[in-house]
């Protein structure tokens, strides 16, 4: 299993109001933007901006980060072998498969295995033999 990208989560009320300052800070446009289950998300640089009503955002606030991986099944095997547990079972979104897991020390993280088109567009070619 390889970690392809890690996003710090930013919680905002209004996605459009938050993006101009992030565009300036990061120096780029969002790589990804979509609506999902009552919230809006945008990936810009190393930030995942999560917007929407507070009660909708609260459903996802238990995770401290979003980690993009190349093999979600390997994440499950590795985390459970190390004493972690899956807290939200695997589901799908417009970006691919995801789940939430609590590590043995208590940290909770969202892990996502992107669809190949996103990996190619945002990360570039991945050679699993080289760990990237």
UniProtKB/TrEMBL annotation:
This is VOC family protein. InterPro entries: Glyas_Bleomycin-R_OHBP_Dase, VOC_core. Residues 3-114 form the VOC domain. SUPFAM superfamilies: Glyoxalase/Bleomycin resistance protein/Dihydroxybiphenyl dioxygenase (SSF54593). It comes from Micromonospora radicis. CDD domains: VOC.
